[in-house]
Amino acid sequence: MKLNELSDNPGARKGRMRIGRGIGSGKGKTGGRGVKGQKARSGVKGIRQFEGGQMPLYMRMPKRGFNKPNQAKYAEINIGKIQAAIDAGALDAGQKIDAAALIGAGVLRRSLDGVRLLGVGALKSKISIEVAYASAGARAAVEKAGGAVTMTETREEKPASDSKAPKKAK
User: Is the pLDDT confidence value at 130 over 90?
Assistant: First the structure.
């Protein structure tokens, strides 16, 4: 058997339906569009949302949310992937690990607006890593292994707001 002789079993692939080719085909005359009317014509748009002049449901619903246009995008990496790169010899645990070292080792493709360290996986090596942000679990795992995490960006801890506390009756 040769690669150019490979083929599907007969009947395994169904051909496309050719519509409008006579009543004997089963899709002739109206071509599967039923009878006359707006839906039988070509180029009809927006008829599914039309509610007879009533304000459509998608316009009655309130708009919610906001997408920040200049939001920072971080390259995320788990500690398990860093440990795998150290085990493979791509990263040196004795050197300081930063975005350039991760890109050079092939662990990351690009650093975007910074690197975010996440805590999935296990870390056995003592490393010193510099990232834009590290989750609490990732920081705990690195410090448990005897390493250190340096964060270039700091997040301000939000004070406990009064709105979430139960209101007292006056």
Answer: yes
